[in-house]
């Protein structure tokens, strides 16, 4: 009898699931997840990209807002109601407590063109991370000078061991000598459930509070964040202007 129970439990446990954290009160763009792009809410596009990622066993929206929850019901998208949280990763950690899986891919709800291949890459990297690595975070090279200077675009400095050294909204590194390569952190992270529970127990440090970049919580506490280069030239929608740019991109792709 015990063996049967074990098999049923295994069947319920999913390998990797995408969690799309969506909150109403973004300071730069309140109600952003429900902003329409091509006639569909922004989070719908992100959910579609997750469905296109072959390695995932499902995708779920995590929100503390009944309007977003209602929109998910209308669109037939799985959602889970969470409490209030400091960051999207804290919200994903609550989901991990309630929904068993081997890994959780946090796909930010404002990346409507995120590459399904990049999502697969993070899922694969998460499966083969060395012990002691707490997260896998995707990044891509920045070529647009405007994006380098844009405080909505988070830059990352990566060590020779492919670990995050520092994240900032400022252009880092400063080009005093050689012209540096600028790298953009994508809103695409992979975690084990254990790493997420540890994340929730850590205090926000001064760097995370100052920059508003949640992966700094691991970095400040000395935990390794593996940085994974991916191909992705999408647009993160941080402002209404970004949404207009995304609308133009969507028109071009049709």
Which features would summarize this protein structure in a list?
254 residues, alpha/beta, two-stranded antiparallel sheet, 10 helices, 37% helix, 25% strand, globular, disordered N terminus
Number of helices: 10
Q: Quick one: how many beta strands?
A: 11
Order of helices and strands: HEEEHEHEHEHEHEEEHHHEH
Placed side by side, the strands forming the largest sheet appear as: 5-4-1-6-10-7-11
Query: What would you report as the Rg, rounded to the nearest angstrom?
Result: 18 Å
Shape: globular
Low-confidence stretches: 1-11
How much of the sequence lies in strands comes to 15-25%
In angstroms, what separates the terminal alpha carbons?
55 Å
Helix/sheet category? alpha/beta
Largest sheet: 7 strands, mixed
Mean pLDDT, to the nearest integer, reads 90
Q: Residue share in helices? A: 25-40%
Word description of this protein:
The protein is an alpha/beta fold and 254 residues long. It has helices at 2-12, 42-52, 66-75, 88-98, 116-127, 145-149, 193-201, 206-211, 216-220, 240-253, and strands at 14-22, 36-37, 40-41, 59-63, 79-81, 101-107, 133-142, 155-158, 164-168, 182-191, 224-229. The strands form three sheets. The chain has a seven-stranded mixed β-sheet, with helices on both faces. Helix 4 (88-98) crosses helix 7. The longest helix is centred in the C-terminal third of the chain and has 14 residues, at 240-253. The model is unreliable at 1-11 (pLDDT under 50).
Short description:
This protein is an alpha/beta fold and 254 residues long.
